[in-house]
What does this fold into?
Amino acid sequence: MCRFTTTSGHPPRFVSSIEELDASLRNAKLLLCPHCKHSGTLIGHGFLRGYAEHGSEWVIRGRRLFCSDRFLRQGCGRTVAILLDCVLPRFSVRAATLFAFAKAVVAGVSRRAAWLGASTKVTSLSSGYRLWERLLGAQCYLRTKLTSLGSPPASAMTEPLAQLLEHFASALDACNCPFEQFQSQLQSAVLP
It folds into this structure.
């Protein structure tokens, strides 16, 4: 399913494939700039690249669109980022790694062992602890967003994060990574 445009006419924040990134570029002139609300001013401005999770090579993380204010155009001169849904904005760690980490900790594994099992050896242990704190701090935000997809299921779990992961599983079907589907479906980052 190609979701290169949202119902508001603005470019999507997250897409699930490179093909959808290409479709967003092809249809950029039809989209409204989220900053100045002008149409016909968005143009391609290159790929967003960043470090891969597994090493020092560069990978495509998304695409940038530029709201052109050149040559008497009415744009605002700002850029808009469209990211792949497997990317956590501002982090080199992928959404699937964060989900595997949280799932292992909820299952009873220590945070250290869960991070070493979920991530690569390149990523430091302190990164895992920082991401854990960010995930704990984002629980209220995530619960609020998830309630737009459905109410939380009845749970026998007492830990709040375990209840949140059950809510992810019930609201977003059984897929490989509910965090990726969350970003793609709700157009919101998992870690704000």
About this structure: The longest helix spans residues 125-137. Strands lie at 14-15, 42-51, 58-67, 79-84. Residues 1-5 have pLDDT under 50 and may be disordered.
